[in-house]
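Incident review: delayed structure delivery

Summary: a single-chain prediction request sat in the queue longer than the usual turnaround. Root cause was a stuck worker, restarted by the on-call engineer. No data loss occurred. The affected request and its eventual output are reproduced below so the record is complete for anyone auditing the incident later.

Affected input:
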Amino acid sequence: MQMTHHAHVRMQQRGIDSNILAWLQQFGRRVHDGSKATLVHFDRRGRDLLRRQIPEKTYARLEKKLDAYLVEIEGQVVTVGRRYRRIHHH
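Output delivered after worker restart:
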């Protein structure tokens, strides 16, 4: 996964584990912003897929951290963060 320096800094500041980012890329829902950026987050389907792939105890321990999201531009992660509100799809 290619990441900008900014994304690395945000990952550390916001306590987002690299496993979470890898799972986001694998199971997350992609929402295009209408220009170049793509927002990737866990929706219910993504969480269900992840739950079936990892041990239940691991999922239970990390479930609170699944509010993470990442933003990609041209395949590179440019920032990461945590959702505090629901992401609406148009």
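Verification: The chain has one domain: 2-82.
Action items: add queue-age alerting; document worker restart procedure.
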